[in-house]
Records
---
Amino acid sequence: MKQTVAVVFGTFAPMHKGHLDLIERAKLACGQVYVVVSGYDKDRGDRIGLDLTKRFQFAQEQFKEDRLVSVCALDETDLPAYPDGWDLWLERLLGLLDLSENQVPVFYVSEEEYAQELHRRGYQAHYSPRKFGISATLIREHPQQYHDYIAPAFLSFFGKESM
């Protein structure tokens, strides 16, 4: 019998309550969750000093006590820019996951177009609209105003000196 494993991917620049909610719902549905932190050189996180390595480290810190969540980093620097390159990107992402032959990835996304692309490629994807009226863009633009929405492990990046 096949066992589903949740996959939640994003740039997480920064991770916020909406992401945490999506990850929690994926965990409740599937048990095990892979959080894939993705990005490329000079992406939106990198432009504010929150490069892929830092985001990956903060995400690992966020889930260090959660045995049901595994965090991976996906460097997209050499891949075609979105929306091109879906097949290469998906191949690389799946290569990061330590799935047994009995495990099937199920994607949890907050972008409807991502769910549609994954469905077209034969994957199960659950679309969940954004919650909390927050986005990483709003946080990057107004970190002090949206401080309470930032995931705890990412708060140190937005310390008092950057607000």
Note: The CA atoms of residues 112 and 127 lie 6 Å apart.
---
Amino acid sequence: MKSIVTITLNPAIDKSTSADHIVPEHKIRCAKPIFEAGGGGINVSRAIKKLEGDSLAIFPAGGPPGMLLQDILKKEGVKYQAIPVTQWTRENFIVVDSSTNSQYRFGMPGHELTEAEATACLDALRTITPKPAYIVASGSLPPGLSSDFFARIARVAKEVGARFVLDTSGEPLKLAANEGVYLLKPNLGELSKLAGVETIETEGVHKYARQIIDKGNCEVVAVSLGPGGAMLITKDLIDHVPAPTVRKRSTVGAGDSMVAGMVLSLGLERSLREMIRYGVACGTAATMNSGTELCKKADVEYLYEWICKFSAPVNS
């Protein structure tokens, strides 16, 4: 298997619980909290581990929450390299109202990284031995970090000969796409911003994705269509893979699970058609679980077989 490294610039501890009848200005008695490692790239590495793959997660970590983050990953068997930073790692809070099954998600802002700390994250990517075949960046940037930071990672990927996979949004996505990536995973809204149009309907996805590819800065675009599955576009290929219909409990972690499935497939040198099908299976499997839980391998394998059976052949 080819080596995979994920990088998370805005990691978090995700604390989740449940309560009956969330009512304003009342003391709410909650269930015992669950603590999980969070942040886009970290979740990609966690999902890869659940799929019995291997990766290295790089992230800044500070204070007691940063130590807890490392302890959680160690217990899950996820390989990691933590970059020590001064500010404490952020904590998010998720509460499920068990009477309605409504989920309330409270995302806290990350703390600023100094230029030296940000540079240390880039240096970690440069000095990994052996050099990674794939570098995956997913999630948001913390406050104060320049919007071109993912573009800087793209340049590092070129330096070390790695393929760069990116899942983010806004100006950081646009700047990195202009710098050059191997694979982008936008949703429809993110693709429309990249293309400079207000909205994109499903039938127009391939047109605008091809425009990005034709600029020469991206080889593969995998557009997430939510319940509609995903569409894979390359210079020579268009492949729409519908998502299986399942009972959805939560969409948290679906995107990171999808990225994990795709990158793991790339690491195992599967075809691009197999990659997008496995990614859709992973993203769909994550929605079957409650809270912030990621995909489960048994669910993924079942869904992948279903997708391969009822969609176009996977020989690319």
Note: The two ends are 20 Å apart (CA to CA).
---
Amino acid sequence: MHYPLNTPLGRMGVQTLEERPDRCVASIPVGGLLNPLTRVPTIAPLAMLVDHVGGLINHLRRNEDEWTVSSELALELTPNAIDVVTATPEAPVLATARPFGPKGTGSLGLCELTHGDQLIGTATVRSFHIHAPGHLVEWPADSTEGAPPAALEDRMSVQVAETGGSTAVLRQLPDPVINNSIGIVHGGVSAAALELVGSAALGAGGREPWRTASLRVNYLRQFRGGDESRYEARTLRVGRSSGAVDAQAIGDDGAVALVARLTAYR
């Protein structure tokens, strides 16, 4: 399934290839995209892919009067993931999701990420089952022509606010195109932005670049783009070969909406 460019999935280039209760498959382009804070290749869009396909497999398990919202996302990558992606940038990354365990208050989806014939990561998405909201924003159904914006920051509607030292900040601009069906910033966009600021807080210099190994995100409350909405990251530890960063998404009201922990290795 191709999504219109005026939807978050279409803007990020996501395509759904299979959609069944026991198996969902989707893809996203990653090669050639740069972190706007560091201008180096990034795997951040994989968080968007994982949130979509893992959330979808959970969503297909809901009852008729239920909806689902992401509550946790965890992504684990192989040490050579970025090398595999950049070696063949024209090929998208594929994610295959399956349900994991029984349905309860929340459901867990297990994902496998591949690029060509190489496994580059695994991921999980946990979703809460809630009563269906009284109003859902209808995504445009018309098929728009063209391609997503070339720059990742334009796809995500983010803007560099601060970088350097041990901190990094991206502003989340208000843009209905990157909102989900309940009118808040799509969870995959937010998770990808947390990876961007987290990896940027570690810095792009050194004897060799940092490689994101894991990203763990908790969704605490609704997050909307606005004048003061932003993603911030600060390093916890930077060693010779490993680093750890805490990141958060903060809304216009100053409340923390998402938190994340990123680990990376050289």
Note: The CA atoms of residues 96 and 200 lie 28 Å apart.
---
Amino acid sequence: MLSTNPAELEQILRDTRTVAVVGASDNPARPSNDVYRYLARFSHYELYPVNPNIDDIDGTPVYPSLADLPVVPDMVDVFRRHGELDAVLTDTLALNPHPKYLWLQQGLWDEEIGKRAQDAGMRVVMDRCLKVDYARLIGR
């Protein structure tokens, strides 16, 4: 189901323990870096940054792909261009078991991607900032 109401979002945020941040950046000017750093500092999440072009963020290893993660994350948080969403979802669905949640950051909305993820049993959040919703509903 597409999750948008505050009670559903809060339930997702509280239930999540591990998050793969696809498109995480080591560049402080990038929104994905800001969100990653906030979550690393203030959330209860175990974070797994994913980006094939960098090796680490502040000493934390960055994984080249979802398939390289040492765990199957509860949530895949996506910071990629719209045209890359299909490949990200394909990689997400290749994980066994599938992650519970697909979170598309602000500016990302795709009905077909959402439907495919939902049909695979995932709950989907689109066009929302994980940092903003976490701060508003859970933490600082």
Note: DSSP finds five helices and seven strands in the chain.
